[in-house]
């Protein structure tokens, strides 16, 4: 049965229509002096998009590519960067011809595609920024002192999320798998991430379901603890780059220049993950330790621009979720995905890049001198942290079940013989101890002492 469309969704749709009809013009039309302006919409604090947004802007690679392009065609190019909190306003501006290229999460990408078709201003998905093969980029968190421990505890509770976002999709799917009706059994609050974070802190929301980097930020600040790891769904989540079809057709060389710049930014992030995290932290005001949790060498996100079949298949599975909420009718995903420009930007290296998979999660320590060290096991990391004392800046461990990286001091630790096993959530740790006689949860400081 199709769910009733929430009033907040109807209002958001009306706002989008108002923005579209109230704006005119072409984002990349030539200025009076002949300069061509390319407008890029991005989300600075959604740090899974940094290779097409914050980091790319800081590195200046797109401007460099356009300068080289201008030297060939005699055109002067200018880049206008526009920062937003979520993908919805980027879509509104794209369908108003005010933004040429935008980056957003998988669920907003589908809404982007649907709105573009609806308003006869089609858009195309041309690359991926970062992804997690299991869904670990989204997390449901509660207040630190909350008695909520499992998804079942959310019955009758108020949960803040951003309707239509990837985090909302995680919430809906997680609740449905637990036998909980997302519309009837919980009170969903449609809020911007920052508003939801404040609501959680004030107690006006019992839980918060959000996308990168909000869960990690709140956990790092001691303002939240994880209730549900999105990777438990075992469904890929990703962010990607969408472009106005008209722009792509009229200025394909400019789009390819953007994608070459994104590829370069991705290579920089992989080669210099600490420097990239520090750069993004300076630009966004986010703690570098939080940025590194997601974007680090063994972070939650894998940065790879290629349009992998598994991600496209996951996007198709997202359509019914959005349709049941009344956010889209249908989306032709195969028509929306267009890898022609990315293939040309990569050249002969594309097949090999497309075939590459996500790296294996490893425990990692970031020391105050700027160096990092990875470990084969969380137990080995604990021993190193105990020995290093106050020279440790941050320590990260992969969840024993899902592989999702988390702060070592925020993880739920289980002692099982000589092994120390980390989990993102208490419910995952409970499930492990229930199946392993003798295993027990222990505080972080006790886990450290046991490892040393």
From TrEMBL:
InterPro entries: SsuA/THI5. Residues 124-276 form the SsuA/THI5-like domain. It holds the Pfam family NMT1. Keywords: Signal. PROSITE patterns: PROKAR_LIPOPROTEIN (PS51257). Residues 1-29 form the signal peptide. It comes from the Bacteria. This is ABC transporter substrate-binding protein. It comes from Streptomyces ficellus.
